[in-house]
Amino acid sequence: MKKKISIVLSLILALSLILSACGQAENTDTDDSKDGTDEITTDEDAETPVDEDEIKKISILTSQGSYFENQHGPMSEKMKELYGYEIEWQVLPDDQYYVLVKSKVATGEVPDIIEYNTPSNNIELNAHEKVVPLDDEPWVDRLVNPDLLADPDDGKIYAQPRESGTFFGGVYYNKSVLEELGVSTEQPETMDELVERMHEVKDKSNGEITPLYMSNAPAEGWTTQIFMTLGYSVYNYPNDGEIYEQLLNNELTFPEAPGFVEVLTQFKSFFEEGLVNEDHLSADYDSAQEAIGSGSAAMVFHGEWFPSLVNERYPETELGSWVIPYNDNLIMGTGAYVRGMFVMKDGDQVETTLDFLDKWSQPEIQNIFYETRPGFSAFNDVDGGEVDPSVTNLVENYLETGKYTYQINDPMGVASSIWPELWKLYADVLASDREPIDILEEWQVIYEDYMKQMEQPGF
Amino acid sequence: MQPSKLRIEKTLYPGSLIIPAAIVFGFFYILPIIMAFVMSLTDWNLSRFYEPKFIGFENFEYIFNDPKFLLSVKNTIVFAVFTATLKTVLGLVLALALDRQLKTKNLMRTIYYLPAVLSMVVVGIMMKSIFSLDGVFNNLLGSIGLDFLQKDWVMNKSTAMAVVIFADVWRWTGFNMAIFLAGLQGIDKEYYEAAKIDGASGWNMLRKITLPLLMPAFTINIVFNVIGGLKVFDQVFIITGGGPGFTTQVLSTYVFTNYSQGLLGRSTAMSLILFIFVYGSSSIVNYILKKKEVDIS
Lengths: 459, 297
Known about the structure:
The structure holds two protein chains of two kinds.
Chain A: H1 2-40, E1 56-63, H2 69-83, E2 85-92, H3 94-107, E3 113-118, H4 127-130, E4 160-161, E5 166-168, E6 170-174, H5 175-181, H6 191-204, E7 210-212, H7 221-224, H8 226-236, H9 240-248, H10 260-272, H11 285-294, E8 297-302, H12 305-313, E9 319-322, E10 332-335, E11 338-343, H13 350-360, H14 363-372, H15 389-399, E12 404-406, H16 419-431, H17 436-453
Parallel strand pairs in A: 1-2, 1-3, 7-8, 10-12
Antiparallel strand pairs in A: 3-11, 4-11, 5-10, 6-8, 6-9
Helix pairs in contact in A: 2-14, 8-10, 11-12, 16-17
Chain B: H1 3-11, H2 18-39, H3 58-64, H4 67-98, H5 105-113, H6 120-131, H7 136-143, H8 160-185, H9 189-197, H10 202-213, H11 215-230, H12 234-239, H13 251-260, H14 264-292
Helix pairs in contact in B: 2-14, 4-8, 4-11, 5-8, 8-11, 11-14, 13-14
């Protein structure tokens, strides 16, 4: 009898578990859809939601540093709701992005869209052969800065840009920290003046505030390089382009290139003079935002992405900006690239992907991004929002007045896959007793070998 | 047919039964090694994925003249020697300490073994926070008046390798302990009873009975430790990323760096050297230790 009762009870229990699971699944679906609708239905004239049967899937490969969940998440929801496109974001670690993208392109195992910098990385994607030219797409007429996108070889547009310009490099500082210490917030006219400001911060705060915050952890090589990648160009302006041409043709070596040793020596001196956070070799990008946002550090060398991230976490913090006066040149170093979406010819559904890009470029989608992360939209009918004054300062006073030059990474894009080795060498200058000239000599060997492997003319 | 030959044939399986295993082994082990050797003689890279060119031993010439590769070899040896020694010695000490009648014996064994089941990512993050400038270790130093020793241990050129070694030793000592414990439990207690009757001291019993009879456990632990040490990747990659600069760069991370640059032919050549290095070292260690094992059968 007991056995029978236990069998019956077990059956009831199993049945109730199955039923409750089904019930939960139904509830979850309902909740999800409700939450999604609450979150993304901002337009009053939103179109009728697309049926599940009409959903088209688009795969996009991107890197961690370029994917912003708070913006891309809602944009994806809206795309699904309005146009029936479901996006599968394939987000890869930054330091493995190059090799994985190259492998996918080489083997033809590609997603519909690959995000990369354009036009600087067109060569990495073998754009002339592997990417669909986009010059005739309907959204091209709405571009703010189409000239920047032109491929250096054939002048075609190979990617839909995310923004109209990027990497407005300079010193970003916590305004209230400098003001409270009585340190001038005027643009320093010379490098000595900039260094003097840093010493002032250190002295006036009795060492409590770090004058210059640097994040040189191994995975953060891209932040370590900022001072040099901008510096080589600004230091040599207006002859920087000519120097890069000579380096590319093997007519000049890095140790001999004018200003390179000087820029690296200046970089090292910040550390030798005790102006940088002691844990800079293990500090990361995240801690840099925290240090500036909280006011425990005064300045960083970064691009326009930095203020928006600080603002997200520390809305009360006011930031200012200066250009870095290398060789006493008041010129801004910037990037000749933007982030772009490339449609791969080997993708399974090229026509659908082109239609997707058109929809993706529409204001009702793009505005979602800039509502919470103001910036410089690639399209003239998209509202970029209110950009941080520190960024506006650089754009209005340097970019719009033509007082800028491009970072070394763009004209020398062919070597982009080995830049991380150079960034490690920069960190080695700080971690060891090595001199800048030793680093550049070691780099020259790596560079020559790589260019030879890539069969570049002159090597 | 001779009766003895008939018996042998009946007891042996037919040779054809080895074919499936040989195919799998050949396809997944032998063929990749041969292909790796062939590709290491080419300039195969991501830009010319389907058009590698034969360049003879140029990759090997470059590798053996590359100061960073030689530094990686040195670092790998340092890491392997220190971790293998420390894990073996500490594992043995723990095993000896816990191979007795303690109330907390099982609990202690579990605690010491626990790090071995943790993910390396977790261990790496833990180590970084313990040894960072404002981490637990520096706070401890400060609290006992050793402020002058406080530093960024993870990214200091002179201490970075020590931190990585410490992490590996901390993680795997418990595993070594488990192997030694199994070995200790296999030693017949009668040896000790006989030695006691003969008036042997504890030290002498350890030297003359325990250690010789533990040689199989030593062989397993040391060979595993040497192989693990020479192949180290995740500890270095997660904790220091090979830095600061190139201070903790080891062979596996250097292979990965070259692969990341798209230099597939060269990184394959490096992998091949690593394979020979690991295979050769572990075979030698195994050969030496096997000779020292005591046959008690």
